[in-house]
Amino acid sequence: MAHGSQINNGLDFASNKVLYVLGRSGPLRPSALAEQLATGRANVSKLVNRLELRGLVHKVKDPHDARASLVELTPLGIELSRDAFRIGDEMLREMTADWSAQEVSIFSHQMARFTRAAAEYERRVSTTPFP
């Protein structure tokens, strides 16, 4: 069975993470993508350029602000993103195969709660100035 570490699409971890984030969130401004990836804009620019050359993402005009652009998955990028989600789903199914339905439900609830708390913490810390 394939695992997340065994995605064999020729892309590095950071590039696969871009595909995952865009697959989950849809088109994003480069600044929002940088925030989601917890990295700088310069790094996102390099990642996006590499993925554009491979035909996995492209930039489109932001329909809400003609001065801005969005990074969007191409059909091939969508396909690779779906592969990453599928592999992740398979991994979770394998890891929880001997759990009861109630245990899976509790875990799902707690993981969602943890994810919300982590996002809130990240927002709070990223907007708190250093002393």
UniProtKB/TrEMBL annotation:
Gene3D superfamilies: Winged helix-like DNA-binding domain superfamily/Winged helix DNA-binding domain. InterPro entries: HTH_MarR-typ, MarR/SlyA-like, WH-like_DNA-bd_sf, WH_DNA-bd_sf. Signal peptide: none annotated. It comes from the Bacteria. Pfam families: MarR_2. Transmembrane segments: none annotated. Residues 1-116 form the HTH marR-type domain. PANTHER family: MARR-FAMILY TRANSCRIPTIONAL REGULATOR, TRANSCRIPTIONAL REGULATOR, MARR FAMILY. This is MarR family transcriptional regulator.
